[in-house]
Fold these 4 entries.
Entry 1:
Amino acid sequence: METLGVVMNGVTGRMGYRQHLVRSILAINEQGGVELSGGRRVRLRPVLVGRSAAKLEAIAARHGIPDWTTDLGAALADDRTTVYFDAQTTNARVAAVTRAIEAGKHVYVEKPTAETLADALALARAAREAGVKNGVVADKLFLPGLLKLRRLIDGGFFGRILSVRGEFGYWVFEGDWQAAQRPSWNYRAEDGGGIALDMFPHWAYVLENLFGGIEAVTARAVTHIEERVDEHGRPYKVTADDAAYAIFELAGGVIAQINSSWAVRVNRDELVEFQVDGTHGSAVAGLRRCRVQHRSATPMPVWNPDLPVTEPFRDQWQEIPDNAEFGNGFKTQWEMFVRHVVDDAPFPYDLASGARGVQLAELGLRSSAEGVRVEMPPITSGVGA
């Protein structure tokens, strides 16, 4: 069986550890590796990298991983490693990924790929010029709810799609009387924080892959909670946006409205939901569920403020069955990227697509700061659109 060495930088963080190391890399090895063409299989050999030796040693001991180091250069110099994966904080990503590209490693990167479009494009160009394969995490596309939504789109359920309305977020505790669920750097712009930079790259690949390319954005990014308490109990001033409200104009006339907030209490079935309305039907998709209402089964509500509502609106929607086994989306995409590296299988979510996500965040923040609608031009820097 083949073995593929993977340098994993940032596994001491929540997402890098749980979704990428435990739920993806280790789970792949537990199932016997990634199946390749011709029935071959490849196992993954993780090399853990980070700044804290104590944390790395603890993770390595917990999972029986022999290779870890605080020396990124040494990990990249090892001829037995082929892929570099980055799940660090955003402001540390560009320098590390650049070093990996220069070392000839194929690179797989969490989003956003950079803090600025210029840096995101520089990474995409560097990877292309070095001839290394590259990919960006696009995990939302592999959620069961969105896979069901994709099935509906491909089957023509909606007719002509008119609009998309998305709601994402939850209340992140301020850290004073209850510990926050997210690290404090998320709320400091100087550390690469901010919900627009964090979430707009997600909305970019979701919208362009399901509904059409983004042509313009109108956004308002705000800081609702102005002071929080960090992991050490120290109050700090919030310098990044914790909510962003946006309208995205898509190719073909589709209008998408998405609210993203870490200062909202949840009154919906799932932490993220998208309602898609079309001429022939509508759907509401979340992380796992997807419900539909066809035009043949659409009731006729009548506005009457003088009487209480008697129609059970949510009960009038039909649940879409799973009809398939849905694995962990991060793991599924890891398998795709490994096949891309080893078998040259297609992988559409490259650093150029990651740059479009950073571009959307940058233009959204510009729209908010200037109070204007901003068109989103194609990326024409030579890395592809």
Entry 2:
Amino acid sequence: MPENVTLVKLPPYSPELNPIENLWHYLKSHFWSNRAYADYDALEAAAMAAWRVAVLDQDLVRSVCAAPYLDRATSK
């Protein structure tokens, strides 16, 4: 494992502690809820557009995926 990677073991069945789950919730609540799509291609295009908007904004990702418990993680 690379020296700059720290594994943080999470309790099982705890999606609220997984930072990516916060990002999925943000995307669902801000981009994907209460919408209808003409077909699968339209749904996929909307999903990809939202993903690009979110992940290209570093401050947004940092804010949405903030996990205070990660501050306590230490490298070995």
Entry 3:
Amino acid sequence: MASADHPVDAPGTGAALLDRLLSVRDRLVASPRFRHWAARFPLTRPVARRRARALFDLCAGFVYSQVLLACVRLKLFDILAEGPQTPEALAPRLDLPLDSTTTLLRAAAALRLAEARSGGRYGLGPLGAAMLGNDGLAAMVEHHGLLYADLADPVALLKAGRTRTGLGGFWPYAAAEQPAGLDRGTVTAYTALMAASQPMVAAEVLGAYPVRRHRCILDIGGGNGTFLMQVAQRAPDLKLMLFDLPAVAEQARERFAAAGLSARATVVGGSFRSDPLPTGADLVTLVRIVHDHDDATVLALFRAIAEALGPDGTLLIAEPMSGTAGAEPVGDAYFGLYLMAMGSGRPRTPAELEALLRQAGFAHIEMARTSTPLVASVLVARLGRTG
């Protein structure tokens, strides 16, 4: 029980001491005299330089992203994959003046997207090489134009909160009162973007959790079936079920038919906000779905899943999560502002998700280790059994 002398939120002795030490640090770092001294003193000079670089990178981040966008749009990485080339040889292929080509190449090299080679030539850098064949990432780079437009005045966005934005128009289900009524033309663009970026997420999920142990999987918000098609390759005996808005489900049905999966794949159209979920699965997956919605919608969805699964069912949640060690900027800075601009949802910590899951009746909840938490973390929740 809390008391007047010991309130629940009062910091302990250790926490209070840490707070005081951090306050001293903040005052020192804010002092121009201290910063000047730290930049010259041999033992603190490396730290001062790293922090100065980190702060400048925050200031220049938009420029860096636009260098990447230019490389993607000009297909520079594909051209450099043919072998190192001079700016003179690249300029006509990029349809750029020579001085602009040189500027872009130097900028790309500074960001490790390209790399200076012998004879004044440029080849792929380690980050540029990673972009090769990564259609999902390239699609996201192009897509960010909408986000940057919505963030042109970030203070206005923060003050307005959930308002009409370019991203909100791109993800129409976020604000739609009746998302099940969206037509095919309205859902095609965002469905294609999700499909393009889905393979790298699927690799993380399927590497973290053995779906083969189940007999039937239901993917809620499964888009055009890209994730389930990856599942089908990993677990050839697993029955597949997909639930999404009717216009999206229609595209999934067509893809399953083209891939020869119609006999083992069932597709149901509907909205989980208003329609009952399909039953019969012992594994339900929510891949980049939960963070799109507010707590009330998520809790109602979790309860509907618990009812559809039955006592021995398992729920798997996969998405970037807030507070993930080593991926904090993605979970909190990137998705925090992205979802605000989108007009719906928020990033959640595993503990916040666990609290909602327990309210919905899930008893056994644990994290599954993924190789790249920046792409997705995986939370596994079970109703009855622990195995």
Entry 4:
Amino acid sequence: MAIGQERVITEIEKHARQARSGDYAKMRESVAAIRALCDLLLETDDQQSAAPAPRAIPLSASPAPQPVLSEKKLEEDGANGDSLFEF
């Protein structure tokens, strides 16, 4: 669900009023909220004017996983089993 531009601008105006009428901490919170709302508004514009959606990469183009050739157990003094959680 898209957020309308008018709704975002209304929220920016509300936070601008709060920034003018509050103390320093409230002003900083309101300005940070305005910044986030502006970023949201600009990001929405960028996505609408951006190039078409990225293409999917075919599976055949990706490198094949390397098979495990041999599995050699590591044996250490003081180890007490095959589990990773046994020390």
